[in-house]
Specification:
Structural class: alpha+beta
Number of strands: 10
Strand order of the largest sheet: 1-2-3-4-5-6-7-10
CATH architecture of the largest domain: Beta Barrel
Strand content: 35-45%
Order of helices and strands: HHHEEEHHEEEEHHEEHE
Low-confidence stretches: 1-13, 22-32
CATH class of the largest domain: Mainly Beta
Number of domains: 2
Oligomer: single chain
Distance between the termini: 131 Å
């Protein structure tokens, strides 16, 4: 039996061996040439062909301009976003600044309307702090058209707290510049700007409407004396170079609206003049000294402003007495806010 098992195992081993090629076939396979390598793939017809050339004079000039620096920034380069932090090129400390505001219009003119001019002298004690003095003159100050319409149509007008007019004022105060920045000006200059905050106090001269304008007769006003002024404001200061600057500010002038004297005369003195006025005829009112000769007043009371003929209105000034008395008999403790826009320019030296 053992020889039968060994014969079976030998047959199985011969079946697992791979078939070997004949010697003639092996020699023919070795002599056959190897297949040629695959030819190179053709170049992509869509690939861009880049040709190097010298830039034209126009391109060269544009490249040179793009490399130019304006205050250290490549403003002409369209491919560069400029974000620069640098120190102020012009120091304000120790300099004086003369500011001129040619136009100062009132912005909240509901009952009154003011147009004027102002100036300011600022001494910069530090880079962000200065002292200033500001005189102002209103070359036009009158009741607004709304208040005049009230007088004409319903015989009413705003209270003195709303209709007191400012002739001129002088203030002293401080100026603070807490914020500073810059921007490109006409693509060639970096303009420096500052946020300006100011505050001050002083005195101002006031007046009040006594009789409105009628037909060809101008309005008449009474002097209501000097009042305490206060102001707060804010705006922008744009510096162009090291000596010149532009300014745009908004300021709120605050002053008391209390009226206790008109043309220097108190309520008691005006009552005396009213009693005299009631006892005179129209012809007597036109005579010089018709009022002053019959009243006893303090030296500060300007009686001459309530007597005689007003050449502009062609009638006696005594007709202002009743309106002046009504102002002082109803004094107000309110304050008036005069918000104005200050636009001007300045020179540093």
């Amino acid at each position: 039996m053992s020889w039968i098992v060994l014969a079976a195992l030998a047959a199985l081993s011969d079946a697992e061996q791979p078939e070997q090629p004949a010697p003639e076939q092996a020699e023919a396979a070795a002599a056959a040439p190897a297949p040629d390598a695959a030819p190179d793939a053709p170049a992509d017809a869509d690939a861009p062909q880049v040709a190097l050339r010298e830039p034209t004079p126009e391109e060269q000039k544009a490249n040179e301009r793009a490399q130019q620096l304006v205050s250290g920034a490549p403003l002409y380069n369209p491919n560069v976003a400029v974000h620069i932090v640098q120190h102020k090129p012009f120091a304000d400390r120790g300099l004086r600044e003369l500011v001129v505001y040619p136009a100062v219009p009132q912005a909240n003119g509901k009952f009154t309307q003011h147009f004027g001019s102002a100036a300011s002298v600022v001494y910069h004690l530090h880079e962000n702090f200065g002292l200033q003095i500001t005189p102002q003159y209103n070359w036009y100050s009158s009741d607004s058209s709304f208040n005049q319409e009230l007088v004409d149509k319903v015989r009413q007008e705003g209270l003195a707290a709303s209709t007191l007019l400012l002739n001129w004022g002088v203030q002293g105060g401080v100026e603070v510049t807490p914020l500073y920045g810059k921007f490109a000006f006409f693509d060639s200059t970096l303009a420096q700007f500052q946020v300006v905050l100011s505050g001050g106090a002083g005195m101002g001269s006031t007046r009040h409407l006594l009789r409105p304008a009628a037909q060809d007769k101008p309005a008449s006003f009474g002097d209501t004396g000097n009042k305490f002024l206060g102001s707060v404001g804010g705006g922008f200061r744009v510096q162009m170079g090291d000596r010149f600057a532009l300014r745009l500010e908004v300021r709120d002038l605050v002053y008391t609206a209390r009226v206790d004297h008109v043309n220097g005369c108190s309520a008691g003195e005006l009552r005396q003049m009213r009693d005299v006025f009631d006892g005179l005829t129209r012809e007597q009112l036109d005579a010089p000294g018709a009022i002053s000769s019959q009243v006893a007043v303090a030296p500060g009371c300007q009686v001459q402003k309530f007597e005689g003929v007003d050449p502009q209105r062609n009638e006696s000034r005594a007709y202002d007495i009743r309106q002046a008395l009504s102002l002082v008999e109803e004094p107000s403790s309110d304050v008036l806010n005069n918000v104005s826009v200050y636009a001007g320019f300045s020179v540093l030296f």
